[in-house]
């Protein structure tokens, strides 16, 4: 009976950690949405809120990290459970960095508001990129919650699309700056935002890769999408 109680408590601890990761994921997704809205509408109040809420993301990372350290110290997990803890620690690092990128976008929104300029270049492309990275993050977190590798390759494929969209935006912005030097300052700010969004996609892809490591025991970092797909499909 004592062993049964211990196992149930251990399972509850692991489940609590996973729930906090998903809570953190939901928070950073909202940060992305609010940061873009603040930028598009030049809403300084919303930008301030994104920046202020970054401490909540950081606090969750510290809390989950401490929980994982306690589980390792008390339970000495092995095999699949150890991979789970390692996946969680890596995932919260990427989620915290996504939160940082959202904060960067909010700071650009503040700067635009202070300058009093009309912020128009490449908004459609930025909105499209944000739509892709939000979907990537949701898919990666869903794979994390279900320990399901079937959708992880979709995240990697979308990351390639986001990378291409970033390169296309960069080429167009360079053209703007060459044709009209007055757009240089504005275009650099747009480029800064586009790069932040592209980095969010990279972090979402990382989370998807961690799921494959957890489920399959295979490290697919720095591999091609085709290699990642083969690993995900292997029984």
TrEMBL record:
The keyword Repressor does not apply. Pfam families: PhoU. It comes from the Bacteria. Keywords: Cytoplasm, Phosphate transport, Transport. Homodimer. Belongs to the PhoU family. PANTHER family: PHOSPHATE-SPECIFIC TRANSPORT SYSTEM ACCESSORY PROTEIN PHOU. NCBIfam families: phoU_full. This is Phosphate-specific transport system accessory protein PhoU. It comes from Methylobacillus methanolivorans. The gene is phoU.
């Amino acid at each position: 009976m004592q062993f049964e109680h211990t196992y149930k408590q251990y399972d509850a601890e692991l489940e609590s950690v996973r729930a906090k990761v998903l809570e953190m994921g939901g928070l950073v997704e909202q940060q992305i949405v609010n940061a873009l809205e603040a930028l598009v509408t030049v809403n300084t109040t919303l930008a301030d809120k994104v920046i202020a809420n970054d401490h909540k993301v950081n606090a969750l990372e510290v809390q989950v990290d401490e929980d994982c350290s306690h589980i390792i110290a008390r339970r000495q997990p092995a095999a699949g459970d150890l991979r789970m803890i390692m996946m969680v620690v890596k995932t919260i690092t990427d989620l915290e960095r996504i939160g940082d990128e959202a904060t960067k976008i909010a700071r650009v929104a503040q700067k635009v508001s202070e300058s009093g300029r009309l912020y128009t270049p490449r908004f459609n492309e930025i909105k499209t990129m944000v739509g892709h990275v939000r979907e990537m993050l949701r898919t990666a977190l869903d794979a994390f919650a279900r320990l399901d590798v079937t959708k992880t390759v979709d995240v990697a494929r979308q990351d390639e699309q986001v990378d291409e969209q970033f390169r296309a935006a960069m080429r167009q912005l360079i053209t703007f700056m060459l044709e009209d030097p007055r757009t240089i300052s504005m275009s650099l700010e747009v480029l800064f935002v586009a790069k932040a969004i592209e980095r969010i996609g990279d972090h979402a892809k990382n989370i998807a890769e961690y799921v494959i490591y957890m489920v399959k025991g295979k490290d697919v970092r720095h591999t091609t999408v085709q290699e990642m797909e083969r690993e995900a499909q292997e029984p």
